[in-house]
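We store amino acids, tokens; thus:
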Amino acid sequence: MENVAAFFARKDVQISAKRYGIDALSAMAQGLFASLLMGTILNTLGTLLNLEVLTQVGTFASAVKGPAMAAAIGMSLNAPNLVLFSLLAVGYAADTLGGAGGPLAVYFIAVAACECGKLVSKETKIDILVTPFVTICAGALLSIAFAPAIGVGAIWMGNTIMWATELQPFLMGVIVSVLMGIFLTLPISSAAICAALSLTGLAGGAALAGCCTQMIGFAVMSFAVNKWSGLVAQGIGTSMLQMGNIVKKPMIWLPTIIASAIIGPIATCLFHLEMNGAAISSGMGTCGLVGQIGVITGWMSQFGSLAQVGWIHWLGLILISFVLPAVITYVIHILCLKANLYKNEDLKLDL
């Protein structure tokens, strides 16, 4: 056993929750962002501006989402070059066979194939043949055996959440909004989770509400100590910046979590906010305004053109994304300060 452990350590195969549950998942989201999500944005711009070349470029970007996710996962696991390049084929196979649940299939299979490739990398004099052979075969065979089932399972889970949200929009609005907001701030990827589960529709709207609340909420409540740089970094960047402060003083998370629980059902029950764009947008919040672009993309598919979108839809998007998270979180923040649960200084970022 000691020899096996030493071999695994030498090959940098570390079986840990952080490496697989945080590093790999976060990297997968970046790969998905740089392919499918960017392709969706370019497609939307091409349609709005009537520029066919942008639509074509967007189509190219979207088409490589499987290889992009697999390569990103490989980089997060410190894959040697031959393993990394071979993962492109693995990502394509897993994404294709996984169907609508492709991202989740790519995640599991790319991780397994990458570690298999690392174990044989540079162990023979014909490494240029052995490493790609093992990596691609392991990934392709795993894709054939498991990707369809993983895809079906992901779709079933996503559909169950969306069905439950349609059936109980208030309760599920609270649950989805709070959980996805928490995932956004934790060092894991809410975007990857939404993409893996194909979380769209009303549940996607609740997820967007929770993510926006965390980002805008922390940006506003910490303005006294972080000023404009903090407002921008958290408001259109990520609330994950506050994770270190949350570990030191967990109570600073209370205002945004409570606000998420309030705003989630407002999104589902009052404004019926739906995310019918790319599922990854549901978990992006106001990061680069990707969440809002996703909603608008869905409107274009639903209504044909933005001119047909009613004012209530625009009002709902603005209130849920920006106004309500800022106002409700700030009010709760003031109450927490008066209750001496924490101080403004506990929200200070080193920017």
Q: What stands out?
A: The radius of gyration is 21 Å. The longest helix spans residues 127-167. Residues 168-347 form one domain. The chain has a mean pLDDT of 91.
